[in-house]
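Ticket #334: bound-state structure for NDP.
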Amino acid sequence: NKPQKSLGVALVGLGSYSTYQLAPALQDTEYCHLAAVVTGTPEKARTWSSRYNIGEEHIYNYENFDAIKDDEGVDIVYVVLPNSMHAEFTIRAAKAGKHVICEKPMAMSVAECDTMMEACEQAGVKLAVGYRLHSEPFTKEVKRLVRDKTYGKLRYISADAAYISRGNPDQWRLNRELSGGGALMNMGVYSIQSIIYGSGENPISVSAQEFSTRPEYFKQTDETITAQFELPSGAVGQMMTSHNVRANRLYASCDSGWYELDPASTYIPLAGRTSDGPMNFEQESQQKLQMDDFAKHILEGTPNVAPGEMGKRDMVIVEAIYKSIAEGGKTIPL
Ligand code: NDP
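RESOLUTION: The complex was predicted; output attached.
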């Protein structure tokens, strides 16, 4: 059955994720559609307007963004900006009375997450983090295996999320002021997410190490980080994240079997196996599933699968990892 209403989405920041993933996905979504854009680049305003048939009255820049308050075509603001701008635009969107999806990592700090959640609560709007995997079938299957304890007691879980960065050394991801950190802020949040949904537990402590082999390129941000987690059940967690390694995997070993996703967090098709054999699921756009899930949450009260609280929880762990590294690998309670 067709949804009664489709919510209007405004994409804020027309970079590569908006261009190649979110906007195409919004052509297929059932519960929401692309209604407006916010960009600092006038040239993009023109191309997007004609490509997606967006009227001039639905095009904003970072200065006049607050006028979106009066745009009845917009229900959801999707913040797809460099990390340092997430808090500001989430808060401005909330003040404009719009629901918000904010890209990962949620913010630069736990303190920023708090102000964002507070602003959304005060405005009575919903807040989600752009954690698309919670709507993705292989990941949902892992969560089911965890819930059902299909393979018995978990003993060990590992999660790697990494790629090799060789591009423009001036990109915002390598600039601490804009990114808040390197591999850990960018890919590490996927490892943290995997550890948590792959175990169904929140870690109680972490210790971490940082490795640097190309300091001339990674001048301001972390290159490779490993971290070990203690989970409340006694299981051990291990993560790696890097801008200098190619890896993307979740693996969990339980008393009577194991499960694995490899790749575990890319948006090219995921693949999964268990000790019983391969997982088979239809591949659909993860972003389509994610945005429809959030719109359904607003329209029908279905669960918010990636709420602000989850983004904040992960930032608590990010901060603990950086603290552990600064203190020579000391174990930090969570
Ligand atoms: P890009 O660099 O490709 O795009 C960022 C856009 O932000 C720019 O194109 C620009 O858009 C706008 N912008 C405004 N101010 C600045 C600035 N000072 N420097 C650079 N850009 C600026 O980044 P991505 O699209 O890859 O990433 C955006 C966000 O989305 C990040 O938080 C990232 O972590 C997240 N992301 C999430 C993914 C996921 O799978 N969930 C995947 C990829 C990214 P304009 O010209 O329109 O103003």
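RESOLUTION NOTES: Residues 158 and 238 are 5 Å apart (CA to CA).
TICKET STATUS: resolved
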